[in-house]
Amino acid sequence: MEAASSSTVRLTTSEAIVRWMIAQRTRLEDGTEAQLFPGVFAIFGHGNVTCLGHSLQQAGDAMPTWRGQNEQGMALAAVAYNKAMKGRQIMAATSSVGPGATNMVTAAGVAMSNRLPLLLFSGDSFTNRIPDPVLQQVEHFTTPSTTVNDSFRAVTVFWDRITHPAQILSALPAATSQMLDPATRGPAFIGLPQDVQAQAYDYPTRFFDPVVHEVPRPRPDVSEIVEAARLIKDAHTPLIIAGGGVHYSVAEAELQAFASERGIPVVETVAGKSSLLGDDPSYIGPIGVTGSEAANNLAAEADVIITVGCRLQDFTTGSWTLFTNDNTVFVNINTTRFDAVKHRSVPVVGDARETLRELADLTSGYQTNDAWKEVAAHNKAGFRSYLDSIGTPPADGEPLSYRTVVRAINDVATEDDICLAAAGGFPGEVNNGWWSKGVHTFDCEYGYSCMGYELAGGWGASMALETKQSEGDVFVFVGDGSYLMMNSDLYSSVLTGHKMIVLVCDNGGFAVINRLQTGQGGEPFNNLLSDTRRGGPAAQDLVKVDFAGHARSMGCYAENVSSIDEMKAAVERARTADRTTVIVTDVDPYTWTEGGCSWEVGVPEVSALQGVNDAKAAMEKSMANQRKGW
């Protein structure tokens, strides 16, 4: 580094990026200040080690660098951290050029679908093209400027390739603005060609002045909120659907007050779960395909549905079959107009917290009728009774199930503990069976439904608990299928000292997809290990994975349990352990929490299997009342 003048400083592009990131500050939800970018997850290769890696090493504790074992895993850990911090801090991730970069595309998809910030830097080929083709370069014969990094365009809200050092003067602030704006929030990608990373430039010193960022809170348009208030005051059977936007707006308290003061029942999406506590009188249960009959029954009767921070995914709406009242009106509160206007809704474009505060003033004195309150309470009581009936530990010799495992851990959880899961069969089980004891203590990645998020996400969530100085633990629920897809961040958690408690439930394959396959008339095929093509010794004797042994080989404490009492005892030991503990149990692949609603999937119109033909007819019948169009 060499000073060029009093108003500029000569730095390489990589040095300037790191120095700028260190200067960025953020206002957290409690009003305190912190680094906007608290660290970088990194796996180095020839595309980023000599320049960006060197700059990170020079930064030291001012920009902590955390080493992952797989580029996808470390970027998923960043997503989980950013989610736990409600988008007010942004962990970044960097990879080399080539396969390291494309490994991160999946994590970018997770952030994009969940509307979460994530900053990604990948190495790129040389802008001068003289060394081409470089190691790991994929060549396009007619478009030589295209590299594998162009694949990030589909899964980011901001994409740029830096071809001159001066370009970061505009690119970095623009990317940050997109990531922090609740109307555009999502992942940002910046490609760094190897020659440009190394080039020096005289940067203005003011570019590195500290800046404190605050997530903006746009207020709703007067006409929109007045119309929304009118509809709510005229409602006889109103219902609130709480989505992930409640959390990112830090609107949990406003939601609770708005609902309880008016007697309006609240149901939650997967992303919105733990907006209210499980025992809150206003809370009824989870809605949708992985939801409860209680919530779905209310959705079918409601005349005004107020969604708060929802993107109305098919698992929330039952592929738009859930709302059978032809006169139902949607009032969609969202920072993004794209979501607010879905399905002919009355939009209220604004920050959830501020919008609820203004709606509270405009609907002061409004109360739902006693009959609707009784319907809500009756449905909730029935749902709780059902969960109690199916949540008891099985008799001796009978296998455990996902739902009994979830119930057991929920029983011993504290208000500070985090429940984390993703994809497969666990979303339905934790969404129904986990009753939140603390606000914003639930992370089930079901926007992108990404198998492999669980262990990486647990690592990132544990980092966030450390940042918050929380006394809680992260409970990670993972099936054998997801564990086998991505497990190396167990070692990351041990290596970096970020502890989690992992419940591995082995049901012998992709059991929930087997359920879908057979439930739509198909025959078991290629999902359960017992139905998978095999050769060699496994053809006669299926080899069983020793998950506990595998976890121990990566430095974790691990044990096998076969009963709920053994599991609870193992959890107590795990709480006092100095590192990640993995608790493994076999579970029944055919036992699931029932409820939910219709969900549209592609079923063949004709088949040699009568069961498939019957399923097609049933699917068409279930979609007869599907709410069509926007």
Notes on the protein architecture:
- The protein has 630 residues and is α/β, with parallel strands linked by helices.
- Helix content is 37%, strand content 17%.
- It contains 24 helices and 24 strands.
- It has a 6-stranded parallel beta sheet with strand order 6-5-7-8-10-9, with helices on both faces.
- Helix 6 links the parallel strand 9 and strand 10.
- The chain starts with a strand and ends in an 8-residue tail after the last helix.
- The model has no long low-confidence stretch (mean pLDDT 96).
Give the SSE map.
Elements: E1 2-5, E2 8-12, H1 13-23, E3 24-27, E4 33-35, E5 40-42, H2 49-59, E6 65-67, H3 71-84, E7 92-95, H4 99-103, H5 105-113, E8 118-124, E9 158-161, H6 168-180, E10 187-193, H7 194-198, E11 200-204, E12 211-213, H8 222-233, E13 238-242, H9 244-248, H10 252-262, E14 266-268, E15 283-286, H11 293-301, E16 304-308, H12 314-317, E17 329-334, H13 337-340, E18 346-349, H14 352-362, H15 370-390, H16 402-412, E19 418-422, H17 426-433, E20 442-445, H18 453-468, E21 474-479, H19 480-485, H20 489-496, E22 501-506, H21 511-519, H22 547-553, E23 557-560, H23 564-576, E24 581-586, H24 610-622
Parallel strand pairs: 3-12, 5-6, 5-7, 7-8, 8-10, 9-10, 13-14, 13-16, 14-15, 16-17, 17-18, 19-20, 19-21, 21-22, 22-24, 23-24
Antiparallel strand pairs: 1-2, 2-11, 3-4
